[in-house]
Amino acid sequence: MSCKVRYLIFFQYFGSKYSGVMRSPAHQAVLGVQNYLEDAVRKLNPVNEVSVYVSSRTDSGVHALCNTAHVDIQRKENKPPFSEQILTEALNYHLKPEPISIMKSSIVPPLFHARFNAKSRTYIYRLVTGLRNSSQLPVFEKDLCWLVQEDQLNVEAMQEAARLFLGTHNFSTFRALNSETPYKSPVKTMLLADITPGYSYFAQHHLNRNMQYWDLTFKSNSFLYKQVRRMTGALVAVGQGRLTLPRLQELLEVQDSLAFPRNMSAPPQGLFLKEVEYDDSVLLSCPQCSPEWINISRQKKD
Q1: Residues 13, 62: Cα–Cα separation, whole Å
Q2: Angstrom distance (rounded) from CA 254 to CA 247
Q3: pLDDT 10s digits, 226-264
Q4: Rounded (5°) CA angle 15-220-153
Q5: Is 72 a catalytic residue?
Q6: Which DSSP helix (H) or strand (E) runs through 236?
Q7: I need a labelling partner for 30 at 20 to 30 A (CA). Which of 2, 57, 230, 289 fits?
């Protein structure tokens, strides 16, 4: 029997078309990205049952510059494991024409877990200001940013507010309630919370010089359900003068999801999962399924 190999796949997607990244019931009209990933793996005809384990959940309308997942693939007897490059190319072939792309694949140890071995996640939220209404937004930016209808945001106040999130806190106020709430600790360590000028040279140079993009970047070991969207909405409210820094501090300290102001959460379309990080030592390949082993297996077969 051939060796079962565990792969870590790095993938990106345009989230507007999907119900989110997680698998949804097959009868549902709009499926999750995971459904398409698993279908692509099945088309490789593995002998084992296919299950893709996604590291980082994203909701409907949220995009990923790079998400990760692991999957086990065992080929038929006498067939060597896929090399990392071949697996990447094969999955991309079977994912056409979906707006999902496998960036790379890595062979990992048998006990590696894409979710539990991740040491941090980084999200970026894209804002744009300087436009009167959504009809002025370039069509190629639709569903890729949040139009905040303000000529100017007080970015200095937003920067000061973002610093309140840094460090280890109970972020209960900044999570939305769902079925997982009782089982997940609300205590998270925020490693980065920053606001910097964004960049879309083509749109600003050729279409509207009044447009200004802003990138809100958050990095943590992990995040709570809709935490980034709530933090983003609160920071924008500070920049607009609708929320004071003392009030934001109170919201953080009250540790109550129901205390978060209604309609302050940012919409999903400006949110991108940028990166999932792992320790290099965790990514070391298992010896019997290393690229060298694969090459030796192929030579024996030939």
Answers
A1: 9
A2: 10
A3: 999 999 999 999 999 999 999 999 999 999 999 999 999
A4: 70
A5: no
A6: helix 227-240
A7: 230
Q: Under a CB-based contact definition with an 8 Å cutoff, are residues 47 and 59 in contact?
A: no
Separation between Cα atoms, residue 232 and residue 214, nearest integer Å: 11
Q: How far apart are CA 69 and CA 58, in angstroms?
A: 13
**What is the torsional sign of CA 133, 196, 231, 234?**
negative
**What percent of the chain is predicted at pLDDT more than 70?**
90
Look up residue 87 and give its two tokens. 């697996």
Structural domains of the chain sorted by starting position, each given as residue range(s) with its CATH number in brackets: 4-116 (3.30.70.580), 119-276 (3.30.70.660)
278 annotated as belonging to a binding site for a ligand: no
Cβ proximity of 224 and 188 under 8 Å: yes
User: What count of other Cβ atoms lies within 10 Å of the Cβ of residue 200?
Assistant: 18
pLDDT digits (tens, 9 = 90+) for 151-172: 789 999 999 999 999 999 999 9
Q: What span, in angstroms and rounded, lies between the C-alpha atoms of 288 and 250? A: 54
Condensed to tens digits (0 to 9), the pLDDT of residues 46-75 reads 999 999 999 999 999 999 999 999 999 999
Q: What is residue 17's DSSP assignment?
A: G
Peptide linkage before 97 cis (omega within 30 of 0): yes
Q: Which two tokens stand for residue 115?
A: 């979710």
- The answer to whether residues 193 and 220 touch, using CB atoms and an 8 Å cutoff, is no
Tokens 């590696």 label which residue?
112
Phi-psi region of 82 (alpha: psi -120 to 50; beta: other; left: phi over 0): beta
Rounded mean pLDDT, 80-88: 96
Active site residue: 59, 72, 143, 194, which one?
A: 59
Q: How far is CA 120 from CA 190, 265, 286, in A?
A: 10, 23, 23
Q: What does the buried/exposed string (b/e) look like for 272-291 if buried means 16 or more CB atoms within 10 Å of the residue's CB?
A: bbbbbebeeeeeebbeebee
